[in-house]
């Protein structure tokens, strides 16, 4: 489904700030895989997301989706195959537009936009049906401006907007990190349900190790632009937070301090 | 007095079309587009030159629309493909258009007085309807003979035209393309992640905005009976004034309401200017200054009022708490000691 081959990306090349963000990264995802990505700050997780979505381009290497090479395709074209939820709840929706207008925008992700009306009666019924999945009562507030929703509601809406058109790849970029624990749990639960319902191939970045263990069938740990540890379907169920930390220490010879503080 | 006010409403409706263009770029795309000062003249110049060379005035006005669209597209391309700052790309285009407009007209001023224009055609057609004489006898019969404008034709046709354009803009902004255009001004990273080409949407939006501006410029040139290379100076501020005054009076909760606000704002702006110019000490040359003052007022006064209201609320609350006795103070002290 998704295939990353020898991805190499360096920032500020040739200056004292030079930083290799991704170093010869290899990743292969099969249809239906739900891979969670953990790693400390600066490990290259966000760069990885941006390279897959086409927000930035690798210096070397290829990105393939469904076998076709997308390496030089701009973001808006790649978006036909990719759904994405951002960390910031404000980033995934248009605040001055209504809930149904936002859904209409998302609805057009897979097809070219024309001069027909974005919200029709038929589509409105469809949107209402989809919003019911969230159990937040948003289906009764179709005409409400998204700017009036709370952060949790907006993030739930973003998640729905990114998924209800069944993307080939779903990218979740620390999408619960900016929410309070209760809202984060809600979004985590919705993520689980929606990914299962639409059978989406998903790549999720998180700072929360417990979340990384709870969700998905595979787990990868990144450090300094490389994947340093990988757990597949058979290995992942046995993992615990302690095992992950010990694994990191064994590989790198240093403690994963920055993430330990996040476990509380 | 009445004739002057009627005249300003008439002009206001024509300028409202320009203001709708400014609304599109300024509010919908969130793009402060200074191209307007140049593209307004481009519209007037294109129409004037075409009319003089014998083209049907309606076709000539449509030509102005196309010229404005192209000018707006160039600004959009400078901004998106050339990665030039929004304000600067507008300014660059405005300056470039000054020379281009001179080239189009071949001289700083093209008179249209002896030509057949959209305005003269509308007047002639209207005269044939006999509506004016009817209004005249009606108004005279109720003793309002001194308030009779020479013709209702221009006002009526321009009003219908401006309203039709408003309606078209409303509908367009509800289409799939229109929705993505609105989202570009709102959150362009998000629209890109939903497979919209934000660069071309911006170019298209600026094109449409400047097409409306140039269309309005063509009508103004024909209304005034000349096209002048300086007629666009400060146009962006007039457009902004219309948008801001309209929003202050009507509000902008929905698109339908916001575009209506722009129409009414444009007429109100003209009325304010006409009334201001009646003051003894002000001259026609002070018009731009008056415009600037109006915009400053429209921007500052609502904030001052809001501040005043918030202050009044605060005082009221303080008074309420104060009258509840000295307990309030004790509680604060207690809370502090808890800490």
TrEMBL record, chain A:
<dbReference type="Pfam" id="PF00005">
    <property type="entry name" value="ABC_tran"/>
</dbReference>
<dbReference type="GO" id="GO:0005886">
    <property type="term" value="C:plasma membrane"/>
</dbReference>
<keyword id="KW-0472">Membrane</keyword>
<dbReference type="GO" id="GO:0016887">
    <property type="term" value="F:ATP hydrolysis activity"/>
</dbReference>
<dbReference type="InterPro" id="IPR017871">
    <property type="entry name" value="ABC_transporter-like_CS"/>
</dbReference>
<dbReference type="GO" id="GO:0005524">
    <property type="term" value="F:ATP binding"/>
</dbReference>
<keyword id="KW-1003">Cell membrane</keyword>
<dbReference type="InterPro" id="IPR027417">
    <property type="entry name" value="P-loop_NTPase"/>
</dbReference>
<protein>
    <submittedName>
        <fullName>ATP-binding cassette domain-containing protein</fullName>
    </submittedName>
</protein>
<feature type="domain" description="ABC transporter">
    <location>
        <begin position="2"/>
        <end position="249"/>
    </location>
</feature>
<keyword id="KW-0813">Transport</keyword>
<dbReference type="InterPro" id="IPR003439">
    <property type="entry name" value="ABC_transporter-like_ATP-bd"/>
</dbReference>
<dbReference type="InterPro" id="IPR003593">
    <property type="entry name" value="AAA+_ATPase"/>
</dbReference>
<keyword id="KW-0547">Nucleotide-binding</keyword>
<keyword id="KW-0067">ATP-binding</keyword>
<dbReference type="InterPro" id="IPR050166">
    <property type="entry name" value="ABC_transporter_ATP-bind"/>
</dbReference>
From TrEMBL, chain B:
<feature type="transmembrane region" description="Helical">
    <location>
        <begin position="58"/>
        <end position="78"/>
    </location>
</feature>
<dbReference type="GO" id="GO:0005886">
    <property type="term" value="C:plasma membrane"/>
</dbReference>
<keyword id="KW-0472">Membrane</keyword>
<feature type="region of interest" description="Disordered">
    <location>
        <begin position="318"/>
        <end position="339"/>
    </location>
</feature>
<feature type="transmembrane region" description="Helical">
    <location>
        <begin position="200"/>
        <end position="223"/>
    </location>
</feature>
<dbReference type="Pfam" id="PF02653">
    <property type="entry name" value="BPD_transp_2"/>
</dbReference>
<keyword id="KW-0812">Transmembrane</keyword>
<keyword id="KW-1003">Cell membrane</keyword>
<dbReference type="InterPro" id="IPR001851">
    <property type="entry name" value="ABC_transp_permease"/>
</dbReference>
<feature type="transmembrane region" description="Helical">
    <location>
        <begin position="229"/>
        <end position="251"/>
    </location>
</feature>
<feature type="transmembrane region" description="Helical">
    <location>
        <begin position="6"/>
        <end position="26"/>
    </location>
</feature>
<protein>
    <submittedName>
        <fullName>ABC transporter permease</fullName>
    </submittedName>
</protein>
<keyword id="KW-1133">Transmembrane helix</keyword>
<feature type="transmembrane region" description="Helical">
    <location>
        <begin position="85"/>
        <end position="104"/>
    </location>
</feature>
<feature type="transmembrane region" description="Helical">
    <location>
        <begin position="258"/>
        <end position="277"/>
    </location>
</feature>
<feature type="transmembrane region" description="Helical">
    <location>
        <begin position="147"/>
        <end position="165"/>
    </location>
</feature>
<dbReference type="GO" id="GO:0022857">
    <property type="term" value="F:transmembrane transporter activity"/>
</dbReference>
<feature type="transmembrane region" description="Helical">
    <location>
        <begin position="289"/>
        <end position="305"/>
    </location>
</feature>
